[in-house]
Amino acid sequence: MSLENGTNIFEDPTQSFVNERGNLVKGYITSIGSRYVFDFNYFTRDIGWKQFGTELDASYFGIWVHEKDRRVVTYVEGDLTEVICSDQEGFDKETQSMKAFYNSAQ
Q1: Where are the alpha helices (DSSP H) in the chain?
Q2: Cα separation of 33 and 102, whole Å?
Q3: What is the pLDDT at residue 85?
Q4: In terms of Cα–Cα distance, which of 75, 79, 72 is closest to 99?
Q5: What angle do CA 9, 86, 106 make, to 5 degrees?
């Protein structure tokens, strides 16, 4: 994940794998203590990100989707997970799975 320098985000290679939908998942650790830092500085609408709203949204939890780049980022209590979809079919499967899991109509 490439974010502006100085963000204190470190990739955790032990958390990288291909999920059951065939998409690459990468794990990261960060010292950033609130999802709102990402909302307002990194995963913004002006660069193509959309929030994926759930009932769990809080300062310690958030999900963002970038349709054009076919990426999904989840923040949970200081951990980031990035799902990189190689094609539109994989992205569609990923977002459908998210909608089912979070019971969301997005």
Answers
A1: 35-41, 88-102
A2: 23
A3: 98
A4: 72
A5: 80
The Cα–Cα gap between 59 and 70 comes to 24
Among 106, 89, 68, 103, which Cα is nearest to 23's? Answer: 89
**How far from chain centre, in Å, is Cα 94?**
11
84 phi, psi to nearest 5 deg: -115, 115
The length of the chain is 106
Backbone angles phi, psi at 73, to 5 degrees: -125, 135
Q: What does CATH list as the number for 9-102?
A: 3.30.310
Q: What is the pLDDT of residues 24-78, one digit of tens each?
A: 999 998 888 899 999 999 999 999 999 999 999 999 999 999 999 999 999 999 8
> 105 falls in which pLDDT band (50, 70, 90)?
low
Domain segments of the chain as ranges: 9-102
Residue type, 33: G
Whether this prediction's pTM lies above 0.85 is answered by: yes
